[in-house]
Structures are given as structure tokens and as C-alpha cells.
What does this fold into?
Amino acid sequence: MTVVKTSLRNFFAHKGRMALSAVAVLLSVAFVCGTLVFTDTMNTTFDKLFAVTSSDVSVSPKEAEDEDDGSGTGRPRSLPASVVEQVASIEGVKKAEGAISSLNVTVVDADNKNMGSSTGAPTIAGNWTENDLRSMEITSGHAPRGPTEVMVDADTADKHDLELGDELRTIAATGDIRANIVGIASWKVTNPGAAVVYFDTETSQRALLGATGRFTQVSVTAADGVSDTQLKKSVAQALDGSYKIQTAKENADENRKDVGEFMDIIKYAMLGFAGIAFLVGIFLIINTFSMLVAQRTREIGLMRAIGSSRRQVNRSVLVEALLLGFVGSVLGIGAGVGIAIGLMKLMSMAGMSLSTDDLTVKTSTPVIGLILGVVVTVLAAYLPARRAGKVSPMAALRDAGTPADGRAGRVRGLIGLVLTGAGAAALYLAATADKASDGALMLGAGVVLSLIGFVVIGPLLAGGVVRVISAVLLRAFGPVGRMAERNALRNPRRTGATGAALMIGLALVACLSVVGSSMVASATSELDKSVGADFIVMSQQQRIVPQAEKAMEGTPGLAHVTRYKDVDATLTSPDGKTDDSGVTAADPTYAEDLRRTTTEGSLAAAYGKDAMSVGSDYAKKHGVHVGDTVTVAFKGGETAKLKVAAVTDDDTSIDQGARYLSIDTLRKYVPADRIPQNVIMFAKAEDGKQDAAYAALKKALDPYPQYQVRDQTDYKEELKDQVGQLLNMVYGLLALAIIVAVLGVVNTLALSVVERTREIGLLRAIGLSRRQLRRMIRMESVVIALFGALLGLGLGMGWGATAQRLLALEGLNVLDIPWPTIAGVFVGSAFVGLFAALVPAFRAGRMNVLNAIATE
It folds into this structure.
């Protein structure tokens, strides 16, 4: 009880000094809890949606090994209408409806504006059935009754200001559907962002499936008293086993699994950044308790002198840490819910609708946040608590401070050197690896070991690095600059720990900047070297429909247009081994549009009759040479024996490993209705007509806003923008760790000012002005921040350069150091140091000289 009372007294006596550490715990816990609440809420939203959209039992085509799912052709797999009649006659079935649904559509308004989601949610077209009343209700107008009528969901109507009577054009593989809005249906649950349009059944069959009398699914409603499981069994017995039969729960679970995989990626990525923030916060907490212990040396000595044991002193500090962790965690849990709501609002602004009505705070979320915050805080305070317990009563009463252990410093330095050396060796092995998988493991080991090594060896590095920085920046400020340097060097362990907190975040920033810049530079170089086409046409989400293909082929000013299709197929090499990665079918002009280097044969010959090419890695692995025969079993088609006419060099980032054959060869072995749509198309302008052809091509594809027309300059800029957006998102997540690191600098300086109260009073007494005092503290802060930045940027560039060597195995051969970014981050670190010193410097300047001198 005495220990608890002492801890409480100390905690509240230093509550101002504990505040920043508590904020670090709060931010880290808030990010963890916010991530869990946000992802759990999204899962709840999808769970409700899947639960209400699933019929009691559904019957859909079962995918055979030799069939695709229809996504390649743009026409989903379907079953005959006779199945609906057959299922309707089964005992226990109350009703069976034929449903049609397709994701391979684009919906545009009269101004040719895409009505689809901008967040990647699907656009769905189908027929309106009674089963849809489970999830939607018609709130305006009526359901579609003919080929010129369409109904749209209310969320899409509100988002794009659609009203009854407005015309929509639905672009599908079989053609365009022009229809006027006659109804608007509202969701009964939250719609995460999908755009939905409904047609009458006959129009849906003709336009989405390309055939009447067929459906993509049968929705079955159970009769009263019949369970879904019983109904499924009855339906399965009546059908011949060629169909996929699921209960509502099985259907929802399958959909949930698909969404869950994506949500897990988001959750674990965000938790990873929260972990980085926790790691940075550990340094802040260690510094806080180390300095508090040092400032209470005399008090600890008195406690030891009157009978307190080492264990009691140790326990007293740990109880303070427990209180800090508990308070910070509780506040962090509440802040986490706020962060989750903020993320939901942000996603809603971006087009993904999430309602706070579905806000999900599981019992495990606050428990995880509380345990994580408290455990991390107590563990971080363990070393300072252990040092406090070692304080000798007599030494403490003489104000000798905490015991200095030179041997411990030497051991620490040795361990740091060993870890850093091991990390450097692992990075070297990663850079010289022959396989990306082996190199990735060594890269991970190298990053972890070198990071820990730099953290451990930080106090040893502080002396030399701080002196170099000071010689460049501080010597011009005379005595004030020299005092700032000595203050930064006074406690290398503290300076090392404070700098290490900033180092971690900036190391990751530098590493990702190098990797991103190298990816863009490599891809740009590869485009300049390999791509001969003037124009590239593609969509991020959909294949190119035949009508857009025809419009492109009819564009004036083009010398040729090249089609490019990826085809599901199983290859059997001469050694008898199989490979399911498919082939690429293209027009012969693709040999001009992509200048692939061949190690054997000619790429043009690969587009001949019953011929193909293979990549050099495949050829080496299976011992394939020009003239050999590869057996290709086309999914949805026949099996062909194709002669290898070329082996292409896989030392590239474009089409690495691709196996080419001509579209004519594809047509010979795959029925016309099974041939996939183009993934991408290329075009070459007639000589001297590049500008005119570019304008004409964009005009020809204006009716199809889902496709982008790019010349090589556009493509490079978009690639740069995409990488930049990804990096900006990562930098935003890393900002949390950097904010915690800044708090660490503020806390270190604030406690340092308190620690040096008497010294500051003496400096002021002998003539140091308030302005000079503030400048000294700001300079000390800048030096510490630049020390952390220098270590972090150097470490990060080393990681990034190693990662680029691994990417070179995938064809990204250019190492590009983004020096403007690196320089900007380094200069920004100086401003971070200035900002962190504002409050401590202001408080130091306000000290009363006589009171400061009288402080013991």
C-alpha cells in the first residue's frame, strides 16, 4: 500500500511531465482501436448486406475445369430457364425466380459521365425480382417493364443528381442499352458504394447474357416450416450435380470471405503503422522515466535510507508507468472510436457509404487497446525502474545521481556493433541474391537487425555525429552554439534514444522514397526502350468491349491497332511438367509495339500459324528451345500443340514471362463466344500524324469514359502519379510515428530544462539573456532532430537501395535516389526541432533567476 501511495504522489506531482508520454500512448492506442473499429464496422456493413441479399437457397452454374467464369468474355456464366421450372416444382419450394446479374457493365448519363463508384465498388446490372425486395424497396416510380426502362438505386441517384425520366446508357459486351429512369429503389441496409441498375428480365437476358431463356442464378424461397438446409438437400437431389447450390448462410459466408481478405490487408497494414508508432513511443517513455528517476535521485536515496528495498523502489516506478499506461490507454480507446468515425466520414466523401448506425465496437477492441497500452508502457519503464532500484542510499544522498556503469556501456556498444554488422551482412546478401524470394527474407532480416543495431549503438554515434552537425551549423553562433552542442552531448544515451525515435519514421520514409522513385525511373526507362506504340488504351477495372474496339479500329490517322488478350490455359512443356499461368494472344503488330529482346528465334515468327513464344525463365526451367513443341490446353476450348518460334528475354519489367501467340491461332482452338475481350489495346499513328491521331482517338472513345487514351508521356505521368499517391498515403500513416517522435523531443527538452534549472539560473545570473537562452535550447533541439534525421535517412537509403536490387530481378533495373525529397526531409527535420523546442524554450526563458539558483 505504501508503494502505491508513493507512486500516486509522484505521478500527480509530475503530471505535467507525464502528459506528453500519455499523449504518445493515447495516439498509439487510438490508432489501433480506430483501425479495429473501422474494419469491424465495414465487416458489419457487408455482413448485413450479404444477409439480406441472399435468398434461402441459390442455384448457380458450377464452374468446370475447362470453363472460365465469364469475366473474360464480359458475359457471365448462365443456366437454362428450364432449371427455374424444375426447381419450382420441388417439394418444399415456395417460389423459384430466375435472376440475372452482371458486373461487366459501365453506366453513363446523358452527358457521358460514368455513374459508377470512384472507390472501386462494382457497378451491377440485372433484372428486378421479388427476391430484391429483401434488400430494397421502390421509393419512387415503378419497376422496369420494357427495353427502354431502367431503375436505379437511390444512393447512385442522389450522388449523381438523377431523376425520373433521365436517360442512362449501359455499356455491356453485347452492346449498349439506352433507357430512361422509371423507378428509384432505396436500400434497406447500408450500401457500401455499389451502383445498381435494373432492367426487365427479357432486356437483361438479351443485353447482359446475349441469349434469351437463360439466367445467372435461381433464387429459391423455402416453404413455411422448411429449413434452408432441408431445402438445399431437396434441390441437390433433384438436380444432376452440375450446379452450385448454397444456403443463404453459405452464400453470405462466401461473399464475406472474399471481402474479408481485402479487409484483412487494410487492417494489418494499418496495425503495422500503429506498431511503428508504439515502437517510437517506447523511446519517449524510456526517456521520460529515465529523466524522472535522475531528478528524484535524492528522494530515492532517502527512501532507501529509511528502509525501502530495491524491489519497492523498482515497483514504485513501475506502478507510475502502470498509471500512465492506463490513463493513456483509456483516453486512446475513446479517441480510437472518434478516429473510426472520422475514417468513415472520409470514406463517405470518397464515395464509399458507411453509416454510423453500423458502428461496431467489439468487447475485444477496448481490451486489446488497454492491454497493449499498459504492457508497452510498463515494459518501456522497466529499465529506468531497474536503474532506480540500483541507486545507493549514500550516493543518492550525496546527489551523485544514478550509477554510471561503464562496463554496461561497453557491452551495449559491442552488442550494437555486432547487430549492425549482422544487419549490413544480411542486406549485402539480399542485394546479391539470385532469387527475389530468398533476397526478400534477407532484406527483412537486414532491416530489423540494422534498425535494432542503430538504436543500440545510437549513444556511441551521438558523440561523433552531433559534433559534425554542430561544426557545420552551430559554431557560427559563438558561445551559445557551443553550449547547445555540449548540452546535446551531455547525456549521449538520452540524445541517442530521442534521435532514434525520429530515426525510425524517417528511415521508412527514405526507404519508400527510394523504392518508389526507382520504380518510376525503371518503368520510364523500360517504356522508352521497349514500347514502340504511340498510344495505349485500357481501363483499370474493365476489359475493352467490342464496340469500343470497333471505334478504335475505325479511327483515322492510325497506321495499325493491336489487340491484346490474356487467356487462361494450361501449358505442358516437353519435360511433362504443367503450368497454369496462361498465355497472351495478340496481333502480329504487337511485335512492333513492344520491342522485346529475344534470346532465340524471332518474336514476329511467334505470331505465325500454330506457333508461340516462351520467356527465357520458362525455357531455362523446362529446357525449352526454338523448334520444341508445347501442349496448350485452352480453358473453354481445345488442346493445341504449338511450336516454339521464339524465346524472349525476361530481363524486363514489361510482360515479363509472357508467352505470345496470335489471335488467329487462338480462334482456331477457342470458340468465338469463349474468346476473352481485350485487356489493353495499342495503336501506332501514321508518320507525321501523331497529334491528329491522338485527338481523333480520344474523340472516337469519348462515348466510353471507362477507357483512358494515353500517349507515352501520359502513361509515364500517370505511373508517377499512382506511385506518388501510394507513397503519400504511406507517409500519412507514418506521420503518426513522426508526431510521437516530435513529442519525444519536446518531452526530452522539457524535462531537461527542469533538470538544469539551477544551471540555467547561473547562466542568466552571469549575463545570458532570455533570447540567448531560448536560442540555445532551440539549437539543442535542432541538433538532436538532425542527428535522428541523418541516421534515419542514411539507414533508409541503404534499405531502399537493397530493395531496388531485388526489384532488378523483376526487371526494374534503375536505382534512383530522390535527392530533393531526401533534402526536403532533412531540412524539414530542422524545422521539427525548432517546433519541438518552442514550449520548453519559452518556459526556460520565463524562469526567475533567483528561484532557479536556489533550486536544489
Summary: Residues 62 and 243 are 5 Å apart (CA to CA).
